[in-house]
Amino acid sequence: MTNSLKNISLGEFKIDHYLSTISNKSMFISIIHMTLQGCEREVAEVTNGTSDEIKKESIMRLSWALVHSKQPEDVQRGLAMLEDSLVNPGSPLQKREKLYLLAVGNFRSGDYSRSRHLLEQSLEIAPDWRQALTLKKTVEDKIA
After folding, report:
1. Backbone dihedral angles phi then psi of residue 94, each to the nearest 5 degrees
2. Of all helices (H) and strands (E), which one includes residue 2?
3. For the chain, which terminus, N or C, has the lower number of CB atoms within 10 Å?
4. What is the average pLDDT across 22-32?
5. Contact 19, 134 (CB under 8 A)
């Protein structure tokens, strides 16, 4: 199953839709754990001969898995990686994705105001992005 997850385009976050269709929470946690292990292995295997783009994609997949982990230390590690990557955010689409993942991690850590701020920044880039709009509503419900 991890091979099929690895092949899903992280850039478009299709994996979120796939995982959201899983009704069994323990299965979801197992998939996240397997994805996290696979991403960590992938980042470790990236060598000096690998292009910067491939390295960045591997780090983004690992960041995604970390901020979705049930372990608070993993979430914090993912947040740190994403914050570091915002120094050179890349294209507007890449920046939007990084801001969104930061919002997810902050939401999962209980920092709802920071999450909302990051979502607003993400929505400045893509105002109609349903995924960010949905999370923003959830964040605002938590704040209210």
Report:
1. -65, -40
2. helix 2-6
3. C
4. 51
5. no
Dump strand ranges (E) for the chain.
Answer: none
Give the start-to-end residue ranges of the domains of the chain: 2-143
Instruction: State the CB neighbour count (10 A cutoff) for residue 11.
Output: 12
Cα angle vertex 27, ends 119, 39, to 5°?
Answer: 60
CA distances to 35, 127, 133, 142 from 58, in Å:
12, 27, 26, 32
Longest dimension (CA), the chain: 50
* 2-143 under CATH 1.25.40.10, yes or no: yes
pTM of this prediction?
Answer: 0.71
Cα(101)–Cα(118) distance, rounded to whole angstroms? 9
Q: For 30-51, what is each residue's pLDDT tens digit?
A: 555 556 566 666 666 665 566 7
Please, is 101 exposed, middle or buried when counting C-beta atoms within 10 Å of its C-beta (0-12, 13-18, 19+)?
buried
> If we measure between CA atoms, which residue out of 6, 19, 136, 114 comes closest to residue 60?
6
Which regions of 46-112 does DSSP assign to beta strands (E)? none
